[in-house]
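Sequence design from tokenized structure. All designs in this work follow the same two-part layout: the structure record, then the generated sequence. An example of the structure record is given first.
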């Protein structure tokens, strides 16, 4: 299936009935926007202890423990398939709970943010609220590492150069997602994102959660915010039980890989 959340696009494979081994080459080829289908992340649905188990791959073939917008898309698909309005989805990040929020919106609890340096993880002990990097960004773990810069104007940043320069910063041994954000008004943030292993994306769920947490920790906003991304708006609410993210989803198309295509990636 091809799905997206605010333009953050995914190929989703339902492997509950039939397993499909995924080599790094196959993932990379599916990700190619001319030679394959193209995606920001690939997600695989498998049977699990909850309603389903989700595994995520970046466009470069690496894995990610979490992907918020893909989780929302898959939750909407499973809700429509089963009639359920609440789900428990297992991931390498842990159990994620999703709910139908009405009006076509889907919410997912991305869990508690990881705020200690070794949880993000960072290379050595330091204050995650102000990293020793020019611009003093905030480090946050959401099952994947994040580096959030608060700037005067997020739209004025050359994100292609800025994101690439910071993704591989030595303070982040597992690389990092990079966000640039500015405060629009009370509890309202404008944010753009560079995803590790992908590049610039129109939206990112885990990045939105990380930015909301960083803004609240800095005292720039409250714990419930609206975030405007290149692809649209997400609502993020940092509650006692975790960081909830709410927004629309889109199921674009269903498809079948040809034997010729699969053979070419063998």
């Amino acid at each position: 299936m091809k799905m997206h959340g605010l333009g953050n696009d995914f190929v989703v494979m339902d492997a509950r009935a039939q397993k499909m081994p995924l080599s790094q080459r196959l993932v990379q080829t599916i990700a190619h926007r001319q030679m394959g289908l193209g995606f920001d992340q690939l997600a695989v649905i498998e049977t699990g202890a909850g309603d389903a188990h989700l595994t995520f791959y970046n466009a470069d073939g690496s894995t990610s423990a979490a992907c918020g917008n893909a989780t929302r898309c898959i939750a909407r698909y499973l809700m429509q398939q089963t009639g359920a309005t609440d789900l428990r989805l297992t991931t390498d990040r842990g159990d994620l709970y999703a709910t139908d929020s009405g009006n076509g919106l889907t919410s997912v609890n991305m869990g508690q943010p990881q705020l200690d340096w070794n949880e993000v993880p960072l290379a050595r002990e330091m204050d995650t609220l102000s990293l020793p990097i020019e611009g003093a960004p905030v480090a946050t773990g959401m099952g994947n590492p994040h580096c959030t810069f608060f700037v005067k104007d997020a739209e004025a940043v050359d994100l292609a150069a800025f994101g690439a320069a910071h993704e591989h910063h030595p303070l982040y041994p597992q690389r990092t997602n990079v966000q640039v954000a500015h405060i629009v008004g009370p509890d309202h943030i404008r944010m753009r994102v560079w995803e590790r292993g992908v590049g610039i994306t129109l939206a990112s769920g885990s990045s939105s959660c990380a930015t909301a947490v960083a803004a609240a920790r800095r005292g720039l906003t409250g714990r419930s915010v609206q975030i405007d991304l290149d692809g649209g708006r997400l609502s993020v609410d940092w509650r006692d039980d975790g960081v909830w993210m709410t927004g629309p989803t889109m199921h674009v198309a269903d498809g079948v890989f040809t034997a010729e295509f699969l053979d070419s990636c063998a």
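The two ends are 21 Å apart (CA to CA). We note this feature because it recurs in several other targets discussed in the main text.
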